[in-house]
Design goal:
Elements lengths: L2 E4 L2 E4 L8 E4 L2 E4 L9 H5 L9 E7 L33 E8 L14 H11 L17 H9 L8 E4 L16 H4 L3 E3 L2 E2 L6 H9 L7 H9 L9 H8 L4 H30 L15 H17 L5 E5 L8 E2 L4 E4 H5 L5 H26 L2 E2 L2 E2 H4 E7 L14 E4 L10 E10 H11 L20
Length: 460
């Protein structure tokens, strides 16, 4: 390899493009950020590229038990309440925001407060009151994730990912008079185009690392029967690339491919179990683990991989949908989530709902650990992301749209200062938060829905 002597050091003229991919049989595999992708002279001069900023949303349904969510103290000395306790290891990357609201503005038309669950999920990112309608008449507004995706897609292969745990087959489990589209998604490409949320990790993996097309269930099962990893066809290319990488990059590439293989193995195992387990209903899509926690962690792993390879910088994820009837017997909650959320202040039901809330934050903690342990530039993926975690209603018994439970997690590429509980005046529009985050992503917009200005104090 030819090079030049600069400052007494040999500096290679050859670098690997950030867009380098490994092409194999039926697959195109993106690479994580390697040292070799940073121009040598720039690296020597310590002129690092601007940090990549990524945006994520993790949505929880059916409200929250607010008394065990909300810290009493403001500022850096806030305590981690029972629901937030699983997130305590990430204190320095967490902003607890209280006082935000998504209730309809005072000048809203009559009936704007109807469809409480449809309104909760739809307004969380659009801040627009959903139209009472079915079928093609549905209408809301473009969501903040899609505003970000329109700009950030210039840098990635995929504009955004929309993911969920629960599927879309919930006929009759929606607000009366409102399309199920309102409760099945939080992402809207346009006012009339809700985006479907993918809940099959196999399909997500194929979208990220396969041929980019949709593959039906029979094709996915045929792949399992053939017992061949989709990564096998690129191993020879990896070996060729490894010969031109330094030791640090070789180790990083090896760890990355190991993580891909581990996820592929887990997806295949889930498909095998679902194909042979007589207790699995015939309607359950192949590739979805039968255990809720395994499914959630696998979907979080998909998100880490998508960010790590820079295939997308925008991801939304519903850990469950509004009106979800899922029960959680594994944590001692045999009743369905939505009925329990109408607790009527019954202590037993409140305790069950609180267990569900903390179970969700425990799963979210797994995601934060994966982000923190994944290198990205000079830091980790947790340093580069800004993730909104929260619900579209507060007290579920009242369907309260005021004082929402909201966290902002991550470093935002140096634009956020965590470790604080910030109290805003009650009924500060939630839209103001999304305005501020879009601004920090480099995608400024003048207004959204009922916004009154950008939320302040997110950075010191």
């Amino acid at each position: 390899m030819r090079g030049s002597i600069t400052g007494g050091m040999m500096v290679s003229r050859k670098t690997i493009s950030r867009r380098t991919v490994l092409r194999g049989i039926g697959t195109t595999l993106a690479l994580p950020l390697l040292d070799s992708m940073v121009p040598a002279l720039s690296a020597q001069r310590k002129t690092a590229a601007a940090p990549i900023r990524r945006f994520g949303v993790v949505y929880t349904p059916n409200g929250m038990v607010m008394r065990v969510w909300t810290p009493e103290k403001e500022g850096a000395g806030f305590e981690f309440t029972p629901t937030l306790k699983p997130l305590e290891p990430y204190r320095d990357k967490i902003l607890v925001l209280t006082g935000l609201s998504s209730k309809p503005p005072a000048n809203s038309p009559a009936g704007a407060a109807a469809g409480v669950h449809a309104r909760a999920s739809t307004r969380f990112l659009t801040h627009v009151i959903p139209k009472r309608a079915q079928g093609s008449e549905i209408s809301a507004g473009i969501s903040s994730d899609q505003i970000a995706a329109q700009e950030l897609a210039k840098h990635t292969q995929l504009g955004s990912l929309e993911l969920a745990i629960e599927g879309r087959d919930f006929a009759g489990s929606c607000d009366a008079g409102y399309s199920c589209a309102y409760t099945n998604t939080i992402s809207w490409r346009t006012a009339n185009a809700p985006l479907p949320m993918e809940n099959d990790p196999r399909a997500v993996f194929e979208r990220l690392f396969g041929d980019g097309g949709s593959v039906d269930a029979s094709a996915r099962m045929a792949r399992i029967k053939a017992d061949r990893s989709i990564l096998d066809s690129v191993m020879e290319r990896v070996s060729d690339l490894g010969r031109v990488l330094g030791p640090k990059d070789k180790a990083k590439l090896g760890e990355y491919l190991d993580s891909l293989r581990d996820i592929e193995r887990r997806i295949q195992k889930a498909e095998e179990q679902n194909a042979t387990n007589v207790n699995v209903t015939v309607d359950q899509p192949a590739g979805i683990p039968s255990v809720y926690e395994d499914h959630a962690r696998l979907m979080f792993d998909m998100q880490v991989l998508a960010y790590q390879t820079d295939l997308t910088r925008v991801i939304t994820f519903m850990i469950a949908r509004e009106l979800s009837g899922r029960s959680y017997p594994q944590i001692g909650v045999a009743e369905s989530h939505h009925p329990i959320s109408h607790h009527l202040n019954d202590p037993a039901k409140l305790a069950s709902l609180a267990r569900i809330n903390v179970h969700h934050t425990s799963l979210f903690s797994y995601y934060l650990d994966r982000l923190k342990s994944t290198p990205d530039g000079d830091g980790s993926l947790l340093d580069s992301v800004m993730i909104v975690y929260g619900a579209g209603m507060a007290d579920s018994n009242l369907h309260a749209p005021s004082g929402l439970p909201v966290l902002v997690v991550g470093g935002g590429g140096g634009t956020l200062s965590g470790g604080r509980h910030i109290k805003y005046p009650l009924d500060t529009p939630l839209a103001n938060l999304n305005l501020a985050l879009l601004d920090k992503l480099g995608v400024p917009v003048g207004s959204m829905g009922d916004s009154t200005g950008k939320l302040e104090l997110l950075a010191l």
